[in-house]
Design goal:
Helix 3 runs antiparallel to helix 4, helix 4 packs parallel to helix 7 and helix 5 runs antiparallel to helix 6. Helices cover 61% and strands 0% of the residues. It contains seven helices and no strands.
Amino acid sequence: MGYAAIILLAAAVAFGVMKLLGLDLKIFSGKSKPVEVPYSETLDNIHEINFTEEIDKAISSGNYRLAVRLFYLRLLKQLSDSGQISWQPEKTNQAYIYEIADPRKRSLFKTLTTQFEYIWYGEFYIDQDNFKQVRSAFDQFNPGKP
């Protein structure tokens, strides 16, 4: 019975330390804290979004994560319009990567996809300086014709 008490005490101390440090481990809390996103993912139709207007709004409000998402959606639209991918709302980003025939463009698109996924789905904070680098990478990718 002494060992059980020591183990419970050690677990309680470890839990308390993690909470004091602000660590949110799923094994203790069951869920990560939700992050509010002022943009509906389910309603994205890349052929109906005014990208210039929406990107300008996101940047002016300092919502760089949303701006990166919009850059990615705009890139999907450009690839779809040029016939390099067949856009469907239910497709995964990985499916789009494999649709691009040109190996160089596929590699660049894969890098942009990884950046987008880390920022958007990984919920990583992105400041203005980091955003400028990501924006530059998106601006340099020219879907052009297949």
